[in-house]
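Structure tokens please, single chain.
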Amino acid sequence: MPTGIRQGQQKIAIDFNLIPYYGEPSPAEAPFIYRSKAKSGTCSFYAYATLYVIKKNKRVTLAIKAVRQQDTKVALITYLLGLIEPIKLKIERLYLDREFFCVPVIRWLQALDIPF
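Here you go.
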């Protein structure tokens, strides 16, 4: 991990990413096909969420999570923040992708007293 990331409070961001999927999924792929609004000629996607630190206008990715259709947004954020818990980062502010803009996420972050 780059020096200086563990010191002080950090700006943390979580992004939601979709990669278009075309065709019929195999039984092994089916749990990882995420359905969303049409984009690039399909409604099926591989989805993943990333958590990274923003330091001096650069991003340092700390965690990645594959997203399944049944995963909730709160569960995704909880999982990603849990992965970085052992390194004891202090969160100055949490920046979220618009995909996470919903009442359950806002209430959960307020309950945890995480600035976002």
